[in-house]
Write a structure and sequence with these properties.
Blueprint lengths: L1 H6 L4 E7 L7 H12 L3 E9 L1 H35 L3 H5 L1 H4 L5 H7 L4 H4 L6 H9 L2 H7 L3 E8 L5 E5 L5 H7 L9 E3 L2 E5 L9 H6 L4 E6 L12 H31 L11 H5 L1 E6 L1 H4 L12 H22 L11 H6 L36
Parallel strand pairs: 1-2, 1-7, 2-3, 7-8
Antiparallel strand pairs: 3-4, 3-6, 5-6
Helix pairs in contact: 2-3, 2-15, 3-8, 3-9
GO molecular function, one term: hydrolase activity
InterPro entries: Acyl_Trfase/lysoPLipase, NTE, PNPLA_dom
Protein name: Ferredoxin reductase
Length: about 375
C-alpha cells in the first residue's frame, strides 16, 4: 500500500504569507524548515513583512544557491547569527535603548529620545548581518520564488511592495524599520518605515498576481487579547500591536467582501478581483506560543526562546501538513472570516482539517459555492 501511495504522490505548489514579529520570527523559521524538508512541496511566491522579510530573503537566497538544503542552512545561519548577537549591538551602545530590554522605568525614559538623537549615525547591526550572509545579486538573478516585501512610505502611509528583481539589504531593512528604534530607510529618495504599518503581510496582491491559487499564512501575533491593558506601558504596547495587526484585518475584510458580493452572482466573478473570491487560504497560527511571551521578547533574541519557537514552528507545520496536505489545490483549510473577524466566537481558531467544510465557502468561476474536489482529480 505504501508503494502504491508513493506512485500517486503529487507535487504541490504553495504561496506563503509571513507576518512580522521580531524575534518571534523564529517560529516562522521552524515552519519554513519543515516545509523545505518536504520533497513534494514547492514554494512559489512569498509575501512578507519585517521578520517575515528576513525569513523570506534567507529562503530565496538559499534556494538560489543550492536548493532546499541550502535554504534550510541559510535560515539557520541567519538565526544563529541573530542569537549570537544577543542584545543587538545598537542597544549595547546606547544605555537608553539597552533599557528597553531591562526595566519598564528605563524603557519609559528611552521613549523620550528619537533614534536621530541617540543614534545620529544610523547604525543598524542587521545591515551587516544580512550583507555578510545574503547574496542579493544571486537572489535577484536566480531565485526560483517571487517575493513581495512590504515597507511603508513615511509620507503617505501606503504600502510599497518590492519584488524579487528589486531586492536589496535596504529593502529588508525598510521592511523591518521600527521608527522608535531606527532611522527611516531611504530607497530612491523615498523614506520608508516598517511594513507592518501598511501590509502585515500583503494578501491581496499575492492572491491576484501569483499563478498559484493556494496561500499559507504564518501568523505570529495572537488574534485577540482577553485582558484589558490599563497600565501606560501595556496600553502603548497593545496600541502598537493593534496598529500592526490592522492591515491584515483590512485585507481579510476586503477578501470576504469580494466573496459576499459575488456569492451566487450570474456568470461568476470577473476581472482581477475574481481571484480573491476563489483563492484558497491556509493558516499556521503561532498565537498560543507567542501570547505566553512578554511583548519585549520580540526585541530579545534569547537562545532558549528562539529554540523553543523554532521547534514549535516545525511541530505546527508538521501537524498542518499531516492534516491538510490534500487540501492544497482543492479547498481552503481555514475560514478567514471566522478566524480573523470573529475570534471570540470561533471554534478551533477557525481552522478545519481534512474534509472539513467552511461555513462561508469561496465561490468558483461559475459563481456557485466552491465544493470539495474529489480525491484523485
Amino acid at each position: 500500500m505504501t508503494e502504491v501511495r508513493r506512485l500517486f504522490r503529487r507535487n504541490v505548489r504553495l504561496n506563503l504569507a509571513l507576518q512580522g514579529g521580531g524575534a518571534h520570527g523564529a517560529f516562522t523559521w521552524g515552519v519554513l524548515d519543515r516545509l523545505l524538508e518536504d520533497d513534494e512541496l514547492e514554494i512559489s511566491w512569498v509575501s512578507a513583512t519585517s521578520a517575515g522579510a528576513v525569513n523570506a530573503v534567507a529562503t530565496a537566497a538559499g534556494l538560489a544557491d543550492g536548493g532546499k538544503a541550502a535554504a534550510r542552512a541559510k535560515l539557520r545561519e541567519i538565526w544563529e547569527a541573530v542569537q549570537q548577537a544577543g542584545v543587538p549591538d545598537l542597544m549595547r551602545l546606547n544605555p537608553f535603548l539597552y533599557g528597553l530590554t531591562r526595566t519598564p522605568q528605563l524603557a519609559q525614559m528611552a521613549s523620550m529620545w528619537s533614534p536621530y538623537e541617540f543614534n545620529p549615525l544610523g547604525f543598524d547591526p542587521l545591515r551587516r548581518l544580512l550583507s555578510e550572509r545574503i547574496d542579493f545579486e544571486l537572489l535577484r538573478k536566480q531565485s526560483p520564488i517571487e517575493l513581495l516585501i512590504a515597507a511603508t512610505e513615511v509620507s503617505s502611509g501606503r504600502a510599497r511592495l518590492f519584488r524579487r528583481h528589486e531586492m536589496s539589504v535596504d529593502v529588508v531593512l525598510a521592511s523591518a524599520c521600527l521608527p522608535m528604534v531606527h532611522h527611516a530607510v531611504e530607497i530612491d529618495g523615498v523614506a520608508y518605515w516598517d511594513g507592518g504599518f501598511s501590509a502585515n503581510p500583503d494578501l491581496k496582491t499575492l492572491a491576484i498576481d501569483s499563478p498559484v491559487e493556494d496561500t499559507l499564512i504564518v501568523q505570529l501575533n495572537a488574534t485577540d487579547r482577553l485582558d484589558l491593558p490599563t497600565g501606560m506601558r501595556d496600553i502603548s504596547l497593545h496600541a502598537y500591536r493593534l496598529a500592526f495587526d490592522a492591515p491584515l484585518i483590512r485585507e481579510v475584510e476586503l477578501i470576504e467582501a469580494v466573496r459576499e458580493c459575488w456569492q451566487g452572482r450570474l456568470g461568476g466573478p470577473r476581472g482581477r478581483l475574481s481571484k480573491l473570491a476563489t483563492h484558497r487560504f491556509h493558516l499556521i497560527d503561532a498565537g498560543r506560543y507567542t501570547s505566553a511571551l512578554s511583548p519585549e521578547s520580540t526585541m530579545k533574541p534569547d537562545r532558549e526562546m528562539l529554540a523553543h519557537l523554532f521547534e514549535a514552528g516545525k511541530t505546527e507545520a508538521d501537524r498542518w501538513l499531516q492534516a491538510n496536505r490534500n487540501s492544497i489545490g482543492r479547498r481552503s483549510s481555514v475560514d478567514l472570516k471566522e478566524h480573523f473577524l470573529n475570534p471570540n466566537g470561533r471554534s478551533d481558531n477557525g481552522v478545519f482539517s481534512e474534509g472539513g467544510v467552511s461555513e462561508r465557502p469561496s465561490v468558483n468561476a461559475n459563481g456557485k459555492a466552491a465544493r470539495d474536489i474529489p480525491e484523485g482529480i
